[in-house]
Amino acid sequence: MLKRTRTITYTVTIAGRSSPSSRTRRCAVQARSWCTRWNANAAARYIRRPTTSPWPSIDDHPPRPPTTGSSCNLGDRVMIRMKIETDSVQFLQDRIGEYHPVKTFALFSGGHDSICSTYLAMENGIADAVVHVNTGIGIEETREFVRATCAHYEWPLIELHPPKRTYVDIIRQFGFPGPGFHHVPYRWLKERALGKLVRESKEKPRDRVMLITGVRLSESTRRMGNVNPNFRNGAKVWVAPIAEWGDLEKNQYMKAHKLPRNEVVDFLHMSGECLCGAFAHPGELKEIRYWYPKAAEYIDSLIPIAAESGNYTAWGIPRRMFPSNAQLPLCWSCEARWDDEQ
User: Fold this and answer.
1) Is the pTM of this model over 0.85?
2) Number of Cα atoms under 13 Å in the Cβ half of residue 241
3) Could you tell me whether strands 103-107 and 157-160 are parallel, antiparallel, or unpaired per DSSP bridges?
């Protein structure tokens, strides 16, 4: 048989001893010929592999523990998903025990992140009702998706509307908003409507209301280090049970529980419940016009109204004004998408 020695010479072992032979020379000539025509790997395929390999074997490298990647088998993925889900439920229960809220609401924008957090909270008996903020400037199909989903699972739905000023009032006075002006439509369209719900839910001045969001931290947001999706702001206690989930965990959770998908998210990669335009990316209006022309036509109808302000008459054009560092949890996904694109 062939045996490899330290001098990288192939010899023929006969009766327990090794000696050169004409066969060895023929093998060497054949190897050199194949090396010049192909490569060393091609030559190795035509010469018998030595029985004692100089390379480390698989025994020298113990197998890695299972991860959430594609290398996991089905059983590993199921166990990992169950552990992540259990940890998220336990996280919510711990926050309930810490803050003792008088009411707990699951905020459902219509996106796939928020449907996971809403299902997690509602099906485990943690939230009292589902809340959707109807900004008045969004894709109607998303609102219909929220209503149909809540009806299917028999979740009580509270649909909020801006209590005073509307999106039309904003653009009539200031024009279309941009990133630097985002805090104004946020407060008028979302924060004040939610604040009214919190005030009506409180029984005593020191009562607290828990708001469960579908915020997931992107890699760029994680690197910032100073952003916390779980915090208390007065009577509001913001909680994000799936903040550490990745796309894989989210998709596995939706598939395991057969959660419905919002086609708006699949087409536009956003829920579309708010089209204020503050964080619109280039070409976003064209995408909206292609998939949802009625929403784009409504935005077009607002251009003459925005012209009354004399400024910022184009939807989705960046503007710098009154920058704010405040955390705006109801618009977290838009801000994160904007940061990732910069």
Assistant:
1) no
2) 30
3) unpaired
264-312 residue pLDDT tens: 999 999 999 999 988 888 889 999 999 999 999 999 999 999 988 877 7
**Are 208 and 235 in contact, with CB atoms under 8 Å apart?**
yes
Asked if 162 contacts 137 with a C-beta cutoff of 8 angstroms, the reply is: no
- Choosing among 3.20.20.100, 3.40.50.620, 2.60.120.260, 3.30.70.360, the CATH entry for 74-341 is 3.40.50.620
Looking at the chain, which runs of residues are DSSP E strands? 2-4, 10-14, 17-19, 103-107, 129-133, 157-160, 209-212, 231-233, 236-239
Fill in the DSSP letter of residue 179: G
Q: Which two tokens stand for residue 229?
A: 């999706």
Q: 107 by DSSP, 3-state: which?
A: strand
- The CA distance from 69 to 178, in Å, is 38
Answer positive or negative: Cα dihedral of 74, 80, 83, 89: negative
Q: Which of 76, 88, 46, 340 is nearest to 214 (CA)?
A: 88
Q: How many CB atoms lie within 10 A of CB 154?
A: 7
Sequence ranges of the chain with CATH classification 3.40.50.620: 74-341
- Which are the contacts of 8, defined by CB distance < 8 A and separation ≥ 6? none
Q: Which of 287, 203, 269, 229 is nearest to 107 (CA)?
A: 229
